[in-house]
Amino acid sequence: FNFHTLEKATKNFHSDNLLGCGGFGPVFLGKLGDGQLIAVKKLSVDKSQQGDREFLAEVRMITSIQHKNLVRLLGCCSEGDQRLLVYEYMKNRSLDQILYGKSNIFLDWKTRYQIILGIARGLQYLHEDSHIRIVHRDIKASNILLDDKFQPKIGDFGLARFFPEDQAYLSTAFAGTLGYTAPEYAIRGELSEKADIYSYGVVVLEIINSRKNTDLSLPSEMQYLPEYAWKLYERSRLIDLVDPKMLEDGMAEKDVMQTIHVAFLCLQPQANLRPPMSEIVAMLVTKAGTLTTPTPPPFLDPELRIGRTITVHG
To answer: Cross-referenced SMART domains, in alphabetical order (predicted)?
Structure first.
């Protein structure tokens, strides 16, 4: 794409066309001459060096992979100091806007389950089924986009990393979103697929509860969602975690409880205890059998309590 085409499509990047802001710049709705709607990510020029790395990383990453649960890159633009990425437009925007934004859209359990399973399948592809091993590094509700049928697609691959087949983890500086971050990555910089799996567990709880993982306006025991969920689990009151609107609408309670259990398995403090995404998909699909008993999430583990300020208050 040339810059003029994208400038015209987005009405000169008008604020009325702003869809949202990512870590490296705003995303605008655009309309091409043939009527096709697109989403244009305009990388921030004031972060030029990092923006260039982000731009090249995202182009390389997303052009090498294709899956129905990953956002499709249509093209890019690199003219002068302009760096833009052009994606398919997702009619129902991002998951966070529906769960705890200003949207009036209600998601019933069937739709929430579809989203939970779709994200898992997208991650399974990245971790296990692609020709290259990829860790996303920034799985969160705002990076899950929804099409017109509420099928989820994972977006924003700017922080994603190719992963050597012969390494259990990479030692790297932290990059991502606090509150969704696995303790071994936030504290020690140890990055692996298991960090994505931890983040996925947080997102699943957000989908079921319809709130952000951290809300400091709530009473202390409710402020961090995984901690609150675990306390309800210990009291056999997990039903209190479910969005009241979903309870009123009616749902398969057994399936919801099993899905929360799967989320707890993703949130285990030791990375090696978290199941791979292929097992998570299988657990979600079969909806049967006895699941492994989860261990308390890391914020309750004395050895990892240092992670609390990093994880909870980000």
So the answer is: S_TKc
